[in-house]
Amino acid sequence: MVLDTEDCLRQVMAIRGALGAALVDYASGLAIRSAGHAPSDDHQVTTAGVARVVCAMLTGAGFIAPGQLGRVDDLVVTAGNGYHLVHFVTGRWDAPLALYVWLDRTRGNLAMTQRRVRAAVEELVAD
């Protein structure tokens, strides 16, 4: 089954502890689609911040671009307001995309969230 972006975000928001999610074009910082809440109360502000963090990480020494051998699959930031998971989306689109998930630290399970996000993204990019 191939998901569209709305179905993908619906699946992500069904994960226990998910507070918000967005599909981000990290080259421009724009939200392609978003759901739930954003830490800044504005998804565009949040996705612009996600894009800056991703670009800083990818241009730093020792990191490899998403989709390449030895690639970066996920970026996890732990903060007082929750876990922030960025999963890189490769294939199907020309734009550099990432799926951002804001997860409640007390209700969410980071490892389970990573698995479910990967599964949702695999369905999203399936041909």
Q: What can be said about this structure in brief?
A:
33% of the residues lie in helices and 28% in strands. It is an alpha+beta fold.
Written account of the structure:
- The protein is α+β, with helices and mostly antiparallel strands and 127 residues long.
- The chain has a single domain (5-125), classed as Dynein light chain 2a, cytoplasmic (Beta-Lactamase, 2-Layer Sandwich), CATH 3.30.450.30.
- Helices cover 33% and strands 28% of the residues.
- It has 3 helices and 5 strands.
- It has helices spanning 5-13, 43-59, 110-125, and strands spanning 18-25, 30-36, 74-79, 82-89, 97-103.
- Helix 1 (5-13) runs antiparallel to helix 3.
- The longest helix is centred in the middle third of the chain and has 17 residues, at 43-59.
- 34% of the residues are buried.
Secondary-structure topology with pairs:
Elements: H1 5-13, E1 18-25, E2 30-36, H2 43-59, E3 74-79, E4 82-89, E5 97-103, H3 110-125
Antiparallel strand pairs: 1-2, 1-5, 3-4, 4-5
Helix pairs in contact: 1-3
What descriptors fit this protein?
33% helix; five-stranded antiparallel beta sheet; 127 residues; Beta-Lactamase; globular; alpha+beta
- The geometry reads as globular
Please estimate the helix content: 25-40%
Number of strands: 5
- Count of domain modules: 1
CATH superfamily: Dynein light chain 2a, cytoplasmic
Which oligomerization state do the chains in this entry correspond to? single chain
- Computed structural class: alpha+beta
CATH level 1 class label: Alpha Beta
Could you give the order of strands across the largest sheet?
2-1-5-4-3
